[in-house]
């Protein structure tokens, strides 16, 4: 029969063997050591994990006042003195950090507010003195329904913030620029339109988006995609296009537009950016000016008297056919030239002197001049010159009109000679 060795503890000690209780205690201690070692390994893993993150982390325990910060937090905020990391030094630590931010007073006020009132995750942004932007997230630590601490998470969002601001800036620029819209190159449909484009063409944004260019440009045939591609498509080099066209508006109007098209693309997509300007009034004014100019040209050409006008530098701005006949040149060959390029120097000197006097005195001047045509004819002209000005009275140049007085002068001479002959006959009789 085998005896229970624990019934003879003295014998066990004498034999040098541990008792069952001692064995169980030894086993319990080893188990505790294993648990402590596992907790240490887990804590080391957690610490290494927090230190490897790009976010700065600070955890605060309310009851003990203990604080934990990871390596990234220290890099962001600098190494705080050990005294400020001790319990009860939260206000002093906050004051130290406030010296690093752009608005220290706001930083402290916000921290005090969140310290006591935060019940769920909140976040805001902090602008640092060195230009960095930190996103701060504060999360309460809750145990058994009670808030026992706070975790502060700081993320450097400087580049993201700058990118967001750049995007916002670009969007504001685009939204507040002149009329423009984007076309999908493959479908020739509008994928974006800014406010100015919608207002100019009297379309709502919902109506404008997805419209085909053929519904906007009246010169594009809806049944012929090649016309749209020819006008609004670009070559592979992306060279911008500039042309005039006509756009139909949502209210039924038709406007003349100056259009520019260029390519904008990134790794994801490409669009054709269409900018345009309403030139209806400008074009109408240009056409009106051209009609008036044609009428004036026809009018002065119908007058048999030579007519001309020069700028302040003495260069001809225009003339009629009768004036051009004097020089046996077409009108186009006279415009832009000076008298020194058309007549001999002595004559040009005399003409220039008269013109300068007219411009200086702003008075009319009349003179008589014999003109010899290329075919040998000699004609006497009486020329009236006068300064001409713009609507504000600004001096623009000189205009002149000549009258052929050869026959009138001959008739006057005949009358004078007849009168002299009659007077001579009377004296002879007497």
Q: In words, what does this structure look like?
A:
With 430 residues, the protein is of the alpha+beta class. The chain is built from 14 helices and 15 strands. The strands form 3 sheets. The chain has a 5-stranded antiparallel beta sheet, sandwiched between helices. Strands 7-6-10-9-8 form a 5-stranded antiparallel beta sheet, sandwiched between helices. Strands 12-11-15-14-13 form a 5-stranded antiparallel beta sheet. Helix 4 runs antiparallel to helix 5. The longest helix is centred in the first third of the chain and has 33 residues. The termini are far apart. The model has no long low-confidence stretch (mean pLDDT 83).
Question: What's a concise summary of this model?
Answer:
The chain has 430 residues and is of the alpha+beta class. It has helices at residues 9-15, 20-52, 71-77, 90-98, 104-117, 158-175, 195-201, 205-208, 225-232, 280-302, 321-327, 331-334, 345-361, 406-429, and strands at 56-61, 67-69, 122-127, 133-143, 146-156, 180-184, 189-193, 241-248, 254-265, 270-278, 307-311, 316-319, 365-372, 378-389, 395-404. The longest helix has 33 residues, at 20-52.
Low-confidence stretches are: none
| Oligomeric composition of the shown chains | single chain
- Structural category is alpha+beta
Spatial shape? elongated
Give the termini distance in whole angstroms: 204 Å
**Element-by-element helix/strand order:** HHEEHHHEEEHEEHHHEEEHEEHHHEEEH
The major β-sheet equals: 5 strands, antiparallel
> What is the C-alpha radius of gyration, as a whole number of Å?
49 Å
């Amino acid at each position: 029969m085998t005896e229970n060795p624990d019934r003879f503890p003295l014998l066990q000690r004498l034999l040098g063997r541990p008792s069952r209780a001692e064995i169980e205690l030894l086993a319990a201690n080893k188990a505790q050591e294993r648990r402590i070692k596992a907790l240490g390994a887990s804590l080391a893993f957690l610490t290494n994990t927090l230190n490897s993150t790009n976010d700065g982390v600070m955890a605060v325990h309310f009851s003990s006042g203990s604080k934990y910060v990871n390596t990234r937090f220290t890099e962001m905020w600098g190494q705080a003195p050990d005294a400020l990391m001790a319990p009860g030094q939260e206000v002093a630590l906050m004051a130290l950090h406030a010296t690093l931010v752009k608005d220290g007073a706001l930083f402290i006020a916000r921290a005090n507010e969140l310290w006591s009132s935060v019940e769920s995750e909140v976040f805001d942004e902090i602008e640092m003195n060195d230009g960095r932007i930190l996103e701060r997230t504060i999360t309460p630590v809750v145990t058994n329904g009670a808030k026992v601490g706070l975790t502060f998470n700081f993320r450097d969002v400087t580049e993201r913030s700058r990118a967001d601001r750049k995007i916002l800036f670009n969007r504001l620029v685009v939204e507040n620029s002149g009329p423009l819209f984007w076309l999908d190159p493959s479908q020739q449909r509008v994928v974006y339109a800014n406010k100015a484009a919608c207002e100019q063409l009297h379309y709502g944004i919902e109506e404008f988006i997805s419209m085909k260019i053929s519904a906007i440009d009246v010169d594009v045939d809806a049944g012929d995609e090649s016309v749209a591609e020819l006008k609004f498509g670009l070559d592979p080099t992306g060279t911008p296009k500039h042309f005039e066209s006509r756009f139909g508006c949502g209210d039924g109007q038709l406007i003349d537009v100056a259009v520019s098209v260029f390519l904008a693309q990134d790794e994801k997509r490409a669009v054709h950016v269409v900018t345009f300007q309403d030139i209806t009034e400008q074009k109408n004014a240009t056409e009106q000016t051209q009609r008036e100019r044609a009428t004036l040209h026809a009018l002065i050409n119908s007058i048999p008297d030579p007519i001309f006008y020069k700028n302040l530098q003495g260069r001809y701005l225009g003339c009629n056919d009768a004036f051009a006949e004097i020089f046996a040149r077409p009108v186009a060959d006279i415009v832009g030239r000076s008298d020194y390029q058309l007549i001999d120097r002595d004559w040009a000197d005399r003409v220039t002197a008269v013109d300068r006097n007219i411009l200086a005195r702003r008075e009319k001047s009349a003179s008589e001049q014999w003109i010899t045509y290329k075919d040998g004819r000699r004609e006497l002209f009486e020329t009236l010159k006068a300064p001409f000005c713009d609507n504000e009275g600004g001096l623009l140049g000189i205009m002149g009109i000549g009258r052929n007085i050869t026959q009138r002068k001959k008739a006057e001479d005949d009358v004078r000679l007849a009168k002299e002959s009659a007077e001579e006959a009377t004296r002879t009789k007497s």
